[in-house]
Amino acid sequence: NSAIELRSVSKWFQRNTPAVHQVSLQAPRGALLALLGPSGCGKTTTLRLIAGLEIPDTGEIYLAGARVAGGGDWTPPEQRRVGMVFQDYALFPHLTVRENVAFGLNGRSTRERAARVGDLLALTGLADLADRYPHQLSGGQQQRVALARALAPDPQVILLDEPFSNLDAVLRKATREEVRRILRQSGATAVFVTHDQEEAFSIADIVVVMRNGAIEQIGAPHEIYLRPSTRTVATFVGEANFVPARASGRCAECVLGSVPLAAPRNGPVEVMVRPEALDLCPDAAGCGLIEEIVFFGHDQLIGIRMCDGTLIQARTGPRIDITPGARVAVRVQGEAVAFPYDENREPRTK
Ligand code: ADP
Ligand code: MG
Question: Is 42 a pocket residue for ligand 1 (Cβ < 6 Å)?
Answer without folding.
Answer: yes
